[in-house]
């Protein structure tokens, strides 16, 4: 039976992208706090000075739920890798019979499918390279693919992540399960979902965001002119969509 949340949560949890950290959400944190929300933006293990590594998405979801996130209902926001992790949090809550803890979820520039073998192999190559050579090659790739203002922000965060944390996250993403069933059940159980995506996102394009909305019975919002890191490319448009849905 589908149930509809009666009130919007007063807390929002924002999960960051790879290979960045919680600072990528600075503009969104400011906007949501101005709208009256409490905002939690954790650094994931291996990023932003947080110790440890993301050995699996499930393990990281357990760490978040048991040690980082509030007991009262909260809205969950994840972008790219943060979206994969948000789906893992939803999966774990479904297993525990606690889906009421997340009445609202925002999946930004992400998708619910697992990696195909070619993508898994590519992530492993990157993991081996970063362990051997460091992450500067990721900074250079981002400089070629991202808007200059976005690349300037991502370079600092990428350089400050640990090599081991980056490699572990790559392997955790490669090993993740297909979570389309989780997204479908979330919609059936009354979780309200917003799928956000940049119109120019080449990594997780709008059609994949449309699938997220369709599976969950949720809403699609396209951020015009934004690429894969839509919150950094077009922060004002992203903030408006986010605040309208959450606050």
From TrEMBL:
Residues 105-126 are annotated as: Disordered. It comes from Deinococcus piscis. The lineage of its organism: Bacteria, Thermotogati, Deinococcota, Deinococci, Deinococcales. It holds the Pfam family Abhydrolase_6. The keyword Hydrolase applies. This is Beta-ketoadipate enol-lactone hydrolase. Residues 110-126 have a biased composition (Basic and acidic residues). Keywords: Hydrolase. GO terms for molecular function: hydrolase activity. Residues 13-241 form the AB hydrolase-1 domain.
């Amino acid at each position: 039976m589908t149930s509809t949340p009666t009130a919007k949560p007063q807390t929002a949890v924002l999960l960051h992208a790879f290979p960045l950290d919680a600072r990528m959400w600075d503009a969104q944190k400011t906007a949501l706090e101005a709208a009256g929300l409490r905002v939690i933006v954790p650094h994931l293990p291996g990023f932003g000075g947080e110790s440890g590594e993301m050995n699996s998405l499930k393990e990281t979801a357990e760490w978040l739920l048991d040690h980082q996130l509030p007991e009262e209902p909260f809205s969950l926001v994840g972008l790219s890798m943060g979206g994969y992790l948000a789906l893992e949090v939803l999966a774990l809550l479904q297993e525990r019979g606690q889906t009421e803890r997340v009445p609202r979820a925002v999946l930004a520039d992400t998708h619910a499918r697992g990696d195909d073998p070619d993508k898994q192999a590519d992530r492993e190559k990157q993991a081996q390279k970063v362990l051997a050579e460091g992450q500067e090659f990721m900074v250079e790739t981002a400089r070629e693919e991202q808007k200059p203002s976005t690349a300037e922000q991502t370079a600092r965060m990428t350089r400050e992540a640990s090599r081991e944390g980056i490699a572990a996250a790559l392997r955790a993403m490669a090993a993740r399960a297909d979570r389309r069933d989780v997204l479908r059940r979330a919609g059936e159980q009354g979780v309200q979902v917003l799928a956000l995506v940049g119109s120019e996102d080449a990594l997780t394009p709008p059609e994949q965001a449309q699938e997220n909305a369709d599976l969950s019975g949720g809403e699609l919002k396209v951020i015009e002119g934004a690429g894969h890191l839509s919150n950094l490319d077009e922060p004002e448009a992203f903030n408006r969509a986010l605040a309208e849905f959450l606050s």
